[in-house]
Amino acid sequence: MEPGLKIAIVDESAARASILEDGLREAGFTQVTRIEETSGLLARICATDPDVILIDLESPSRDVLEQMFQISRVVKRPIAMFVDHSDSASIQAAVDAGVSAYIVDGLKKERVKHILDMCISRFNAFSRLQSELEKARNAIEDRKVIDRAKGILMAAKNLTEEEAYAVMRRTAMNEKKKIIEIAQAVITATDMLK
Amino acid sequence: MRRGDIPLRIGFIPLVDAAPLFVAVDKQFAAEEGFDVELVREVSWSNVRDKLNIGLFDAAHLLAPVAIASSLGIGHVRVPIAAPINLGVNGNAIVVSHELYAKLAAHADGDLGDPLVSAQALARVVSDQDEKAAGPLTFGITFPFSNHNYQLRFWMGAGGVDPDEDVQLVVLPPPYMVDSLANGHIDGFCVGAPWNSVATEQGVGRVLHFGCDIQARMVEKVLALREPWIAKSADTLSRLLRALDRAVAFIDDPENLDEVAAIMTAPNRINVAPEMIRRSLEGSLVVGPYDETRKSERYLLIGRKGAARPDPVHAAWIYAQMVRWGQAPLSSTLFDQAQAVFRPDIYDAVFGRRDSRLSGEPKDRVGAFAGPPFDPKDIAGYLSAWPANRIKRRVAVRRK
């Protein structure tokens, strides 16, 4: 464990950054700084003087960080993690998860590998969580649309709720479409005929 | 839509010189050569470089200096890159705030449209700025290894300004450039089309120079491939070059301007009005208030004037800039490695020699506005024409 390491997180997603920060603190890293703003990034990093910088790959500010390779006078020279390509699986995993890490020159990568590993797993957990949320949100939306279409069919064709749903399901199967698409079509057609 | 069998993932940054990629896909040129292309928009050059390096991309729209830096192992892990075709030559512009423009005009000894006049005016502004103990003038660039960086530096250096001591150069993502200029965080910037004219369209700055005023001809983006990919699939490669060559010819036909602009502004490509793309391709930019425009046929060259053929002289020039500004040491090994990135041999093998297209182009193939003609065989001699010049230090000495 390296509780003395200073870690900076550059992430525009506050939710993800805080999940990561929590993880790092639980692992015993107390000196964690979150940098959300994109303007004045270099100044913030210089002030923090981190040993490890974790950055979201979707952040355009990555190019700003790369400048620090050039102006090492103002800050300890950071280098990209695993620059020797000895661990391409880790690099691949990090890129897939959407995170990149920079460590100061001279810091042995074994000392920070578990930081990156945790970072990768938290980033992955976050995107799983997000896609589940998205799915749940879509399911609720779909339910609303299907209910509305059911109501239209019930009124127009004098059907019960079960019958209206059965009509849509049968049509969906015949046309090899999803039931939500049929429901949407019913609503669109009704709106047009108004 | 037709699809080929060869999957090809290509990373790009939303800029006008990614046009050959978009057109090759949308006009089916790539599919007709057997490719199933997936274009992936990226947010940073670091991402493009890294994803190309680890093989997540088969090819990339890349800053020519990044391809060279990557091949030399400067600033990052060494991954040899090959550039068998250029995607764009020129296309940058130096933009300054209205405030800085007014100061330059007040200090100009001649026409500000002349980069030597403007650079000397900048030296006087810097000198004033220093005496009044104001902060240093700050200029935005998009990446340390970029012509934006080198062109700003070359321009400043010609006027006697030391870009490392007298002013501050900061990296900013292009989408933040205009806002940073508007809120005074920076005094100017150098970026590529279309972002350089977004500022003037919004009235927050002035185009001071086109990149082609600084160097008449300089490769800006290349199609970058990893070396092993080139070695193992020569046939695939020539088909890819043919598809891009057709796209380039399509873009160069003025009749297709509207269609190309529409293709480029499709969702997930470049988020600007088609008019901005049209203007960039025509080289006719709004440069100042009241829709003042300026047109130059050299502003951005995609294919025209033999622009698509990789030129090792340009690789040598870029390497010379890396040496001049302390990014790389001068060595014959590095020089050879830099030149080897550009592969006109592959281009010529597919298309034959197209030398006639170079008639009327600068003799030294660069056409810089100041200094001796560039001689790739004598970089040390060429660079000796540029002694370091530090206004700040001169002023400090004077004060003692």
Short précis:
Chain A is built from 7 helices and 5 strands, in the order E-H-E-H-E-H-E-H-E-H-H-H. Chain B is 44% helix and 18% strand. In chain B, strand 11 and strand 12 form a beta hairpin.
Please, could you describe this protein's structure?
The complex is a heterodimer of chains A (194) and B (400). With 194 residues, chain A is of the alpha/beta class. Helix content of chain A is 59%, strand content 11%. Chain A has seven helices and five strands, in the order E-H-E-H-E-H-E-H-E-H-H-H. A five-stranded mixed β-sheet of chain A has the order 2-1-3-5-4, sandwiched between helices. In chain A, strand 1, helix 1 and strand 2 form a beta-alpha-beta unit. In chain A, helix 5 (109-157) crosses helix 6 (161-174), helix 5 packs across helix 7 (179-193) and helix 6 crosses helix 7. The model of chain A has no long low-confidence stretch (mean pLDDT 81). Chain B starts with 5 loop residues before the first strand and ends with a helix. Chain B has 19 helices and 13 strands. A six-stranded mixed β-sheet of chain B has the order 2-1-3-10-4-13, with helices on both faces. Chain B has a five-stranded mixed β-sheet with strand order 7-6-8-5-9, sandwiched between helices. In chain B, strands 11-12 form a two-stranded antiparallel ribbon. In chain B, strand 6, helix 7 and strand 7 form a beta-alpha-beta unit. The A-B interface holds A 38-39, 42, 57-67, 69-70, 80, 83-85, 88, 91-92, 95, 100 and B 43-47, 50-51, 54, 56, 75-77, 142-144, 170-173, 175-176, 180, 185, 327.
